[in-house]
Amino acid sequence: MPRPNRPLYLDNQATTPVDPRVLAAMRPWWEENFANPHSVEHAMGRAAEEAVEAARAEIAELIGAEAREIVLTSGATEANNLAIKGAARFAAGQDSPRRRIVTLATEHKCVLESVRDLAAEGFEPVVLPVRPDGLADLAALRAALDDRTLLLSVMAVNNETGVVQDLAAIGALAKAAGALFHTDAAQAAGRIPLDVEAIGADLLSLSGHKIYGPKGIGALYVRRRPRVRLAPLFSGGGQERGLRSGTLPAPLVVGFGEAARIAAIEGPLDAGRIREQRDILFNALARAVPGLRLNGHPEQRVPGNLNLTFPGGIDAQALMRAVPELCVSTGSACSSAAVEPSYVLRALGIPEAEARATLRIGIGRFTSPADADQAAALLAGAWHTLTQAEQ
């Protein structure tokens, strides 16, 4: 994708650019048929409804689900809230004795806060540590899951380290305990194969803008058989089977569906190409910066993520300021208002000083080998300059 006079974008964990094919698919639903997809009394409304349902089917296909199991939301944050709070509140309304909700310390903020918020409603939040490589400790999970557990929530791919959890094993532990299994798969969809049956997911969250689709649209998979029941987060007109009221944004839904369709077809090709660019960048940078460290499991990770700690105590914020032509980050965009170092890295046992010297680099579909070379040269040059200034 051309970037005239634009910085080199390597922050694809925060968001991805909209694929031109996705933009083309959305355009008619803004310019030509702008009808409300719920206005099925007339032809334009019915056409919009058909487009929405076709997109819903494409989203379902990406994760091996049925179209009717997909509830459209504003994004993965809403989907995560609906999954966790919706499951808990429905169970409470049924006087279920299960009050424990288990998750990991490295989850997305919206999952951690949702779990913690439920303590005020009489639930027992359990936030477990992870191994130093970022993977879940299966023995600790097994010990935490008992007949008091309502829900286990473990993200498929960590948004900072790119670590891929063993979802099938985790889902099996939840099933053995009779608990629901939810996974935030926003960073996984399109990057690794996903099948809700294979991993035993009861609830699974997705986001359009992580797979080269538009921002402002996401989805929650809600298992139909055996049926998972949720309480809605807010009241309204009863759209999305009563679980998510509000007018669906047809152009965004269509774009999400097209992005899912492309990801299902091209995901393996993307992964291979992205892995090549990642290796080019990492190997060049490691040669130029002795002592550079990769955080998270070295193999069990998505191809495009590099979470790197730079030696010498060089602050990552200073490093980014030294290369304004490069778009990288220090961690989750959703935690960017925080001044403390990444809680994800701290959960891996990384000291605060080293966490402050860590960058997240996200390589994507449109990253070229030349981009990878340029990024490595820029970062290495900036690190050497800052290191010399410190001496």
From TrEMBL:
UniProt keyword Transferase present: yes
Aminotransferase class V domain location: 9-373
GO-annotated molecular function: 2 iron, 2 sulfur cluster binding; cysteine desulfurase activity; metal ion binding
Catalytic activity: (sulfur carrier)-H + L-cysteine = (sulfur carrier)-SH + L-alanine
GO biological process: iron-sulfur cluster assembly
Pfam family, one: Aminotran_5
Gene3D superfamilies, per database record: Aspartate Aminotransferase, domain 1, Type I PLP-dependent aspartate aminotransferase-like (Major domain)
Protein family membership: Belongs to the class-V pyridoxal-phosphate-dependent aminotransferase family. NifS/IscS subfamily.
Protein name: Cysteine desulfurase
Organism: Roseicella frigidaeris
